[in-house]
Amino acid sequence: MRNGVTIGQAAAFVGVTVKTVRHYHKLGLVEEPERDSSGYRRYGSAELLRLVQTRTLAAAGVPLAEIGPLLDADAERFAAALADVERQLTERIEELIARRDTLHRLADGDRALLPDRAVALLERLSGLGFPAEEVAATREGWVLATALVPEGFDDYLTHVEHALEDPRFVALIKRGAEAAAWEPDDPRIAELAAAMADHFLANPEHLKIVTGLQARTEAATRYKLISLHGEEQGSAAAQGVALVETKLRAAGVRIPRPDSH
Description:
Pfam families: MerR
Largest sheet: none
Low-confidence stretches: none
Keywords: DNA-binding
Organism: Nonomuraea montanisoli
Mean pLDDT: 83
Number of domains: 2
Protein name: MerR family transcriptional regulator
GO molecular function: DNA binding; DNA-binding transcription factor activity
Order of helices and strands: HHHHHHHHHHHHHH
Strand content: under 5%
Distance between the termini: 82 Å
Helix content: 55-70%
Structural class: mainly alpha
């Protein structure tokens, strides 16, 4: 091997393709040998060593643009550069792990968009006998809430957890779910709204379910998007919500108005 090896042999020895070797040449990472009398470029031990070093750093995740300066650096700079590369790789690994976890959560649709506590509460609503349609509407409303009022959502879940321990509250909310099928002029809507408002006023901890999801900015817009999600304008459910809010405002409870900013 006095005259060295061909590019094909060099690539095979190092474990890369000929195309990769040529790419390293193009980037200036490995100096291209001169041609011998037969017209072949012969790679000696120095070129092979440089190829091995370049291939090893590239395989470790070092960007090709950084390999040249890295190989030409002194020991101290080389160590510092490797530490920086390790930090970047760690960040990429953490990002990939987070993406993988998201994919796993996507297998369970709720968990991709909601925290585990919220998913557990949705399952609890189903266990309490709430209709599937009501649970689905609640899920969608909570997904909106996590995006529009993220700072208050965890506390909101705590209030819901506590309220579901009260059979009276559960009965009222179930009645509200049934009201979705009522006609808009059904007199029971006003009766149910009054009962709900009275319950909230008599139970301040439960009232926080209504007042807890109020954003610091664009409060009315965000609140309306969440509170009326899935309710058609003029429907029995929408009218019921409006009546409850009116009664609570009359009692001094701060609830954003649709026309306020």
